[in-house]
Specification:
With about 450 residues, the protein is α/β, with parallel strands linked by helices. Helix content is about 45%, strand content about 20%. The chain has two domains: about 190 residues, Spore Coat Polysaccharide Biosynthesis Protein SpsA, Chain A (Alpha-Beta Complex), CATH 3.90.550; about 200 residues, Spore Coat Polysaccharide Biosynthesis Protein SpsA, Chain A (Alpha-Beta Complex), CATH 3.90.550. The longest helix is centred in the middle third of the chain and has 24 residues.
Length: about 450
């Protein structure tokens, strides 16, 4: 039994890479993945293309996108997966057993991944309600045999509540769904952003209005206007590339001037990546945090070339400076991600994974091979910078313990390496496939 997974997407650059990477074992097992893009203005398409079998352009609207995606697939079973949802490991086997047992369609139980403490209760209520009513939601990764899907004509062409409408039709034509106990994990970003109780109330009102016959187009307009998305500000910490002041370990081998040139090269590489991530909607504002001040020619040149804003680093040690920079971003209502300038493997996909992590977690860390960080991000103010063993092997272990003590949640990204020594420089010069060779 071959499963065709259809992922509708619209401006999902911040979450899509991690979701699609999780589907790689299924593709390796002979199943297919199709992304149906509804006209994204960010990097959604470029992120998806190397990770799926096909990316297709579709009319905007989840129902239209899923129908268009289904039409381009070849599998015996269709599975519709939201861009911020991850399947359980044994999803293909669970679906096959359900259909072999006589069901023609079904869905998974759901776990909601987010900061609000009420999310486990919300997920439990969703699962119980669905099992009682025979109505599935898109968050639960609906699946249906191709024959049954074609028999009912696919998703109805409405802009909202398409999952409920299809469930009702399938329940009438093909019987009740298989309600699998295996759990998909979906993002709790809408509950975290808008407040859990407010979101519950809004969703129940939408369902009630749909039940009493309100036009789905009017419901869709109300739904999307109430669903803001907060992309993180990207804060780049940089030093004035003056010989003798930067890359001092590297300078001991290649000389002060050559080391400063390498620093400038890496900084501009980082700024290009940051500008592309901003223009692709992965991050919001890009800020260059300067040491020792913002008036240096290199900084003003980078400001004009890459369209970034300049800010002077404030405070004594690195931790204090990062804490103060992040606090300013958080005060504006945006999460914040801090990076340096000397990690060649830090690309748009890595930034997208960090942004996605901050949608559902309090913090994200990208560890460096030398014991530091290549990336730190916070969605709320946490004291994770004071009295830390910077550039020491135990830094991540101390970080994990600190976050746990603060009763916060975190995501740890893959380990990357900086260019600090002659060996690092040789590795950097030899690397020709960044996505594969800059990671550890």
């Amino acid at each position: 039994m071959r499963i065709s997974i259809v992922v509708p997407a619209l401006n999902e650059a911040s979450v899509l890479a991690a979701s699609l990477d999780a589907l790689a074992p299924l593709r390796a097992g002979g199943h297919e993945v199709v992304v149906a893009d509804g006209g994204s203005g960010d990097a959604t398409v470029s992120i998806a293309q190397p990770r799926v079998d096909r990316v297709i352009a579709a009319p905007r609207g989840r129902a239209a996108q899923m129908n268009a995606g289904a039409a381009q697939t070849r599998g015996d079973v269709l599975l519709f997966l939201h861009a911020d949802t991850r399947l359980p490991d044994d999803a293909p086997g669970a679906v096959e057993r359900a259909l072999a047992g006589g069901a023609q369609w079904g869905r998974f139980d759901v776990t909601i991944d987010g900061r609000a403490r009420v999310l486990p209760l919300i997920a439990k209520m969703m699962n119980v309600r669905s099992r009682a009513t025979g109505i599935a939601t898109g968050d639960q990764a609906m699946f249906v045999s191709r024959a049954a899907f074609e028999r009912v004509g696919g998703f109805p062409p409405i802009p909202l509540m398409e999952d409920i409408a299809l469930s009702k039709t399938l329940r009438r034509v093909a019987g009740r769904p298989a309600c699998l106990r295996q759990r998909v994990v979906t993002s709790g970003r809408r509950w975290d952003e808008n407040g859990a109780l407010a979101t519950i109330a809004a969703m129940w009102r939408l369902r009630f209005d749909y039940w009493r016959g309100v036009d789905p187009a009017a419901l869709a307009a109300r739904y999307w206007s109430a669903a803001p998305r907060h992309v993180p500000a990207l804060l780049i910490f940089a030093r004035d590339p003056v010989p003798g002041k930067v890359k001092t370990r590297l300078a001991a081998t290649i000389g002060d001037s050559a080391a400063a040139s390498i620093y400038r090269e890496l900084a501009e590489r980082t700024l290009r990546t940051a500008a592309a991530a901003r223009d692709g909607g992965v991050v919001g504002a890009v800020e260059l945090w300067c040491d020792p001040d913002t008036d240096r020619p290199a900084f003003t040149h980078w400001r004009d070339r890459f369209r970034v804003t300049l800010h002077a680093q404030e405070g004594g040690d690195l931790g204090t400076r990062m804490q103060r920079a992040i606090a300013r971003a958080l005060a504006r209502g945006a999460p914040a991600v801090v990076i340096g300038t000397d990690c060649p493997g830090l690309d748009e996909t890595y930034l997208a994974r960090a942004a996605a992590a901050l949608e559902t977690h309090d913090a994200v860390f990208g560890p460096a091979a030398d014991g530091g960080y290549v990336l730190v991000g916070l969605a709320r103010d946490l004291d994770v910078f004071t009295r830390m063993p910077w550039s020491a092997p135990e830094l991540m272990a101390v970080t994990r313990a600190r976050v746990a003590a603060l009763r916060a949640t975190m995501v740890e990204l893959p380990l990357l390496w900086d260019v600090d020594t002659a060996a690092d420089l040789a590795r950097y010069r030899e690397a020709s496939l960044p996505d594969q060779r800059f990671a550890r």
